[in-house]
Amino acid sequence: MRSESPTATPVVTIPDAPPAFHLLAKPTGAVCNLDCAYCFFLSKEMLYPGSRFRMADDLLETYIRQLLEAHARSPLVTVAWQGGEPTLMGLDFFRRAVELTAQYLRPGQRAEHTMQTNGTLLDAEWAAFFREHDFLVGISIDGPRDLHDAYRVNKGGQGSFDQVMRGLGFLQEAEVEWNALTTIHAANAGHGRAVYRFLRDECGARFVQLIPIIERVSEASDDGSVPWASWRDRPLYVQEGTYVTNRSVSAEQYGRFLIDVFEEWVRHDVGEVYVQLFDVALANWVGEPPSLCIHSETCGLALALEHTGDLYCCDHFVEPAYRLGNIRETHMLELVASQRQRQFGLDKRDTLPSTCLECDVRFACHGGCPKDRFLATPDGEPGLNYLCAGYKAFFHHVDRPMRYMAEQLRRGHAPAEITARYRDEDTRRGRNSPCTCGSGRKWKHCHGSAVGRTA
Ligand code: SF4
Ligand code: SF4
Q1: Global pTM?
Q2: What is the pLDDT of residues 120-176, one digit of tens each?
Q3: Which residues of 102-247 form beta strands (DSSP E)?
Q4: Is 325 helix (H, G, I), strand (E, B) or coil?
Q5: Does the pLDDT at position 334 exceed 90?
Q6: Mean pLDDT of the chain
Q7: In this structure, are residues 55 and 86 in contact, taking their beta carbons and an 8 Å threshold?
């Protein structure tokens, strides 16, 4: 490793190091004020017995300095906070993080601050801080009250919906840029359109991330039930096991959910509401690198930093076998550029089973995330993604509109023109025709229905 330049952050160079990467820092480790039933990350507290679960001030400075040094050749660096629940650190911690970032920025370099939070502890002061420093805040919300509260509960088992909406209200009042992070699970899986309409119409979301809940376990009852309600006191969650809990979404449900949302979005919201998965799909149809690792050919550029300085290959692999090292001992860039991390990223492509290699939508899917590849293919080969049937259904369903939007982009037109095309087709559609989403319901009772809760 070589350092140069005595001013600001030195330029740290390592042969073949990536110019930019994404790192999720967890200043409270897995500690959270909620007890969401599906959150296996709660069990990661066991990695650090006896810890206070607070990132120390000197480590905060080391982290920010190294992050900016590692991005010295990149004009933009993202400083991303996540948990556990990062707001438990208190505002002063993040004030200091912003100050340190400004101190170590290089001329011409810009920092973007982001935080993923459950939203329950936010108030006007937090919101003013976020606004002042242009934070992009991700709020975890799983839909209307009954769907959200199914699993997103506090330690007393009470739903958190009211507190989340209250926190969101502060962000909206202060005009903080925010996005919705919505998990798809057994409780909300059958309500894609209702969840999406709620986020768009009642929360005013303009950025939506959809994340499938897949809780892997080594054993479960026939109905997928497990003998505990929370991961907080369970053995450390690791990516092992071929069963899933009954809170998990099934592949078929996942595909249907995405199609349900897509059929609403494509008619009303292209260019207005950004649904990450649709944008990622369009990038793959256009042939450009998508912004999401899961549907990229390789990965390895989205790492996780624990409150102790331990760096892990990925947020989903915070477990001993995937610990790369500690940034107090080894510069972050050395760990990011290590052969081990590179191999982790390449394995995503190089371990695909032949079913994926021969698949007609591999260009869009890329086999999904390796953490979910625990099925055998029909030929008995290991490594097929648990969500495969859902991915196939969704990518086949959107093939025609994605081709159209990709073509529009190639011609320099806005992809949003597809909305007019759909509307035109819809005016000729009989009210009793089968809905275009494939639900088997009549058009008038499904995506042809007026906006409102029609799950
Ligand atoms: S393991 Fe999955 S989530 Fe992690 S970087 Fe790779 S694709 Fe992304
Ligand atoms: S749809 Fe299924 S077979 Fe095709 S690439 Fe994705 S996981 Fe593999």
Answers
A1: 0.92
A2: 999 999 999 999 999 999 999 999 999 999 999 999 999 999 999 999 999 999 999
A3: 110-117, 136-140, 177-184, 207-212, 216-217, 243-244
A4: strand
A5: yes
A6: 92
A7: no
Amino acid occupying residue 215: E
How many whole angstroms from 229 Cα to the centroid of ligand 1?
27
Least confident of 3-17, 115-129, 381-395, 430-444: 3-17
Pocket of ligand 2 (CB under 6 A): 355-356, 359, 361-362, 365, 367-368, 385, 388, 391-392
Within its chain, how far is the Cα of 117 from the centroid?
Answer: 12
Predicted confidence (pLDDT) per residue in 200-248, tens digit:
999 999 999 999 999 988 776 677 677 666 666 677 778 887 888 899 9
- Rounded to whole angstroms, the Cα distance separating 425 from 443 reads 12
How many angstroms separate the Cα of 131 from the Cα of each of 79, 101, 138, 172, 175?
16, 17, 14, 10, 7
Distances (CA, A) of 234 to 43, 227, 237, 443: 6, 10, 8, 46
d(CA 393, CA 343): 30
φ/ψ of 200, rounded to 5, equals -75, -50
Q: Which helix H or strand E contains 408, and what residues bound it?
A: helix 399-410
List 58, 146, 162, 315, catalytic entry: 315
